[in-house]
Amino acid sequence: MAARRPDIVVGIDVGQTCSGVAYSIGPDWHHPRTINLWPGSHGNIKADKVATAVGYSREKDGVQAWGFECMFGDAKLEVREQFKLTLDHDYEDYRGFESHHARRWYGDYLKCLYAEIVKFFNDSVPKWHSLHVEYSFSTPTTWTNPAMIASIEGLIKAAGFTSTPRQTVRMGLTEAEAAAIDACKTKYASDDAGGGTTDVNLLKVKSLDDDQVELEPLDHVEGVPVGSTLIDYRMAEHIVQRLEPIADYLDGDLYCLAEEMLTGKFQTIKHSFPKPLVDQYWLDVKGLAGAQSFPDVGIKDSRMSIARETLKGIFDHQVSQIFELIDGRLLALQEEFFNLQVSYIILSGGLGSSPYLYDQLKRRYEKNEGFASNNTALIRIMRVLEPQLAVVRGLVRERTQQLGKGPSAGQDVYKTRHCRNSYGVAVREPYNFAKHGMVSTIKGNDGREWVENCIE
Q1: Would you indicate the residue range of the signal peptide (predicted)?
Q2: Which domain does 99 fall in, by range?
Q3: Residues 161, 154 contacting (CB under 8 angstroms)
């Protein structure tokens, strides 16, 4: 039986720091719109993404807050955040958390997210409960194990996203593939640098009309655990080392104090870097009463100085890993398509909006300072207009194009895909009844019987 055509497509990108939700309503399928009013987001202030955080009561069991509601420093809450990467059994969480912890938090977060999505559509779409809704989730490029992706899909369904027969879940695109759809150009490498991962996708645009796009992958999608949150982690380590000699003067756990120092002002500094051109940045030291000074650890009037070179070094560590990822993909492309010119590297994702990353990529790939290949002679570095929304909008656009407008037939964005896993090589084997049984064979020039398409 054919699946019911959805009336609404909802794209969901659960990120390491924030999550986005976009949607489109058939049969005309307008351009993706985002849900931008979330609980705790300061009244009517719009926020295109909601914090990926869930808060548990310290006094009783159960979820007490989620998203922006966890951002108010409530001492009665135990807040869990930045758990997306930890869903992978192979990921080592520096905080000591394991996959089973992350799966609990992820499931609880999804339940809250689902309830808010339902509330939004109840308030804005007539007869919402009678419509067929398809939820399209992205997957990180670093998740290559099909069994793991299937288990995550199970958590999504258990959170309520298939709680009625009119709701279905789809996990068809990686974050890099979805972001690429939102940033189509001639031939390009799409670099989705987010909060927790950075993905590279080499694509060729085969057709680009007003409403239809067809992309041809030139290589498999690849990602590494590099992103904006890793900058926060490295800076937190630096701050804790600075605070340790004065721990007796501080009220609170050093790591918690460091994380508090990285909210607000530091995020502004990080997103603006390399500007302003100052030698020192100053952060308020949480847990230090009054206006105390400790010259030996660089604290004056309860503010810690952060050297510009320290922040630059943390950025450079992340940027160098992104260089390594892009270099590898471009060199592999050169081996297979020597004369094919890459026109653009398109940046998306949270870290993709970083002016520093943008400048460093331009120097390396446009100006050939440290890298050159036959494929990148005319390359340009560009950014999507709203890099943090590229994934979620790409999810919706891919599916609505596939469905088609009104009675018109749609078409796939990706008509071919490159598998990220190797399942073996198809070979020809000498026929052996004990092994092959009753199968079709062919006779070789040597007179022997052979079985084709055996997997080795």
Answers
A1: none
A2: 8-182+387-403
A3: no
